[in-house]
Amino acid sequence: MERVITYIDGFNLYFGLKTKGWKRYYWLDLQKLAMNLLKVNQKLITTKYFTSRVSGPPDKTKRQGTFLEALETLDNFHIFYGHYLTNTIECQKCGDVFAKPSALYPSSYTHSFHFELSAMFTT
Question: Which residues neighbour 121 within 8 Å (Cβ) at sequence distance 6 or greater?
Answer without folding.
Answer: 4, 5, 7
